[in-house]
Records
---
Amino acid sequence: MTQENQGLDNKQIGGSIRRRRKALGKTLVKVAEETELTVGFISQVERGICAPSLSSFMRIATALNTTIERLLNVSESYEIVTKAEHRQSYSLGEAGRWYEKLGPGFSGALYYPCIIHRPSGHVSEKMQHQGEVFCYLISGEIEYHLGDIVHNLGPGDSIHHDTNEPHFSKVVSDNESIELWVSSHPIAEA
C-alpha cells in the first residue's frame, strides 16, 4: 500500500477547523475547554502553524460535533468491506506521518481502526482520555510509555489498555513504524 495523501496542508486543515468552529458559534476558549487542549494550541492549529496529532484532531472534531473525515473532506461512504486498493489515506503534520483509513464505520460505531505510519524518532503526544486502545506493531520498533512503565515493542507485539492511564510512544527503530490501531473514543453529541 502506498501513500495516496489527500493533499491537505496545515493551513487547509486549520481553515477547515476554524470554519466549522465559527459555524457552530464556538469560541477558541470553549473548544479548548471541551478538548482539554490549550487555546494557544488550537489557535496555532487554526492558523496552520502546527498540525494536531490524530488524538488531538479526534478531540477537536468531537468538540465540533463532526469527524476527522468531514474536516479533511475524506469520503465517508459506508461499505462493509474496504478493499486495500481503495483504502483512503491522509497525513497530519510532519512529513512521514500518515494514516490509512481501514473503514468508514457505521452510525453508532464504537471503534476507530487505522494504520499509522510514523518516521524514525517520532514521539507522539502524551495522552490521557476516556476509552481504550489496541495497537499491533506491524513493523519497526516503538517504546510505549504507559503510566510509569516503558514497554519495548517489536514486529508482532501488541498492547491493549485503558486510555485513562497516561500514555505516549516513540519510534526507536531506524526505519518507520507501521502500526495497526483500534481505538474507542467518546461519541460526539449530534
---
Amino acid sequence: MSGHDHDHHHDHDHSELSETELRVRALETVLTEKGYVDPAALDLLIETYEKKVGPRNGARVVAKAWADPAYRARLLKDATPAIGELGYAGRQGEHIVALENTPARHNMVVCTLCSCYPWPVLGLPPVWYKAAPYRSRAVADPRGVLTDFGVTLPKDTEIRVWDSTAEIRYLVLPMRPAGTEGWSEKKLAELVTRDSMIGTGLAKRPEDLA
C-alpha cells in the first residue's frame, strides 16, 4: 500500500462513532427537540453536500485537467495550489495529491484509520468509505472490492492503493473516456463521478449521458 502509514494502533473498530461524532449526535438531538433544527432539512443538506455540491467541485477539477494539458501538469505536480486556482481550498484540503489513472495503473484511495477525505473537492465521505469492511478489504483485496463496485480491470493493470491521512489526502484523476474530443469542460464534468475520483469507479461514457 502506498502513501503515509498511520502511526496509530488498529486495535479497535473505528467504524464505531467517535467521541466527536457522539457529541454532534447529542447536540443535534437537543436542538431538534427544542425545535431549532428540522431533521428532514438537515438530512437534505447532508445529502446535497455529499452527492451534489462537493463532488461537483472535483468534477470541475478533473474536467479542466482533461481539457487543459498545462493545468493537468500543474495538478499532478502540486495539486493543492492547482485546485486552489478554481477556488477550492480550506479545511481537509490543505495537502492534496492527485493520482492519475492510466491503462497500466489504477489508483484507489482508502483511509485505513477512519475517514480522511478531501472535503473541498469531494464533499462529505460516503458511508461505505468510513466502514471497516471497505477499509480492510481495499488493502487486502483491492481487485475484489472493485468488482463489488462493478469495475473490472484487465489483469495486467496494476492496482495501487493509497492510504489517506490527516497530512495527505488524495484525488484520483480518472482516465478521460474515448469519444469526448472537442467537448467543453462543462460537458466533460458531467462524466465525472464521485467514485471515479476515489478510484472505486470509472468515469461515465458519453453514451451514459443520453
---
Amino acid sequence: MNRHSPAFVVQIAETAADLRTAQRLRYDVFVTELGGDGAMVDHANQLERDGFDDHATHLLLRDTTRPVADQVVGVYRLMTTAAAAAAGQFSCENEYDLTVLRASGKRLLELGRSCLHHDYRGGAAMVHLWSALANYINAHQIDLIFGVASFHGTNAAALSAPLSMLHDRHLAPADLRVTARPPGAIRMNTIPPAQIDRVAARRDTPALIKGYLRLGGVVGDGAFVDHGFNTVDVCLILATDAISALQRSIYTRGPRIG
C-alpha cells in the first residue's frame, strides 16, 4: 500500500511505452487477480492486450508519488466511432449487437478495460478518472457512452439475483436496447420481480456497475458469459442526460487531459 497521500495526474497514452504501462496494469487486474486469459495475452511480459489497443485512446491515471515505472494505477480505454471503424468494430460487438446504437445517429464512445490498482479502489482515484472522462466527452461532443461491465466468475446461476434486478429495474428503452449475442448470451430475468432478494442483489453487484446506475445508466437485454476472462458481462449505456449527471457529479474541477 502506498503510504503517502497520492498525487494524481490523468494523461492520454502517447507512446508505445505508455500503452505498455496500461497493458501491464490490465494484466495485474484481469489476469493475475481475476483469472482471465485471452488469445493475445502476453504472459512472458505480463501484458493484457488485444487488437483494439492500437486504435483506441487510453486514459492513464498516475500517482506521481510512486516510482516512475510503477505510476499508472488506473486505466480507461476509449473508442470513438472513427476508432471502431479503423479497428473493424467496437470491442464489445463480439458480445453485443449494437445495431440500435449505430442507427441512433448519436456520437458514440465505448468505454472498456476499466481497472484500478487494488490499493486505490474505493477512494478518490475513480473520481479523477471520471472527471477526466467527462472532460473528454465534452471535448469530443459525445452523445452516448456504453461498454461492458463485469461480474467476476462464470457461474450465472449464482448471479441470478443481481442480473434479474438489473433487468427489472434498469433495462434500456427499446431505442437503446442492445442485445447479447450467442453463443455466450444468457437471460438476465430468471427470477420474477416479486421474488428477487434486492438486498442480496445490491450486495452482489460490483461497485462500478452501481456507480453507472446511480448516474442513470441502463443495461442491454441479456448478459454474456465470457469464459476467456472468467466473467459474466452486462452492457451499460449512458445517454446524454446520464452524461450530464456524470459531469454534475464531479464536485471538483477535473485534471486536464494531457
---
Amino acid sequence: MSALPNYLSMLRIVLVLPIAWLLWKHQVMGAFWLMLVAGFSDALDGFLARRYGWQTELGTLLDPLADKFLVAAMYLVFTLQDLIPLWLIGLILTRDILILLGAGVYRGVFGDLTVNPSLLSKTNTAVQIIVVLMLMVSQMPIGELGPGLLAFLQVYAFPLLAALCIASGSHYLFVWGRHSWRRLRGEKPRKIRDSMERSES
C-alpha cells in the first residue's frame, strides 16, 4: 500500500498522451474529463503520502514530473493550434530547462539536493494550470464565452504567466547560486529548502 502514491503519479504520466491526443483532435470534453481524473489522482497521492507517511524518494521525483509532463504536453498542443504564442511556450520551456540544468549541476558538484517548491514556483504552476483549463473551456461550444475568454487570456493571463515564469526561475537560480557560493567558501551546508523559506519571509 505504501507504493500507492507512486502508482497514482504513474497514472498521471500514462494519461498525458490520451489527453494530448484528444486536445489535438479537438475533443475537448473528453480531455477535460481525463484532466479531472488526473487532478483527483494528484490530490489523492499527496494526501496519502502525508497522511500515512508514504513518502519515497521515487515519489518525490514522479509527482512533479507527472505534473510537468501533463502541463507541458497541453501547452505544446495549444501552441501548435495557435492558441498560445510561441514566445510564451519558449519562456516556459527555457525556465524549466534552466532549473533542471541548475539542479543537475548542483547535484553533480555537491552530491546532494533537497528542494521544496518555492512559493513563487507553486504560484507559477497554479497559474499555468488555470490558464490551460481556461483555454480548454474557451474551445468548448459555449456560445460567445469562448472568444471572450480567449481575449482575456491574451491580454491579462499570458503576461501574468510570463512574469511569474521569469520571477520564479530567477528565484531558483538566485537561491542555488547563493547556496553554491557558500558551500564553495566552506560554510556549513544548509538545505536549499530553508534558504527558500527565508527568502520568502
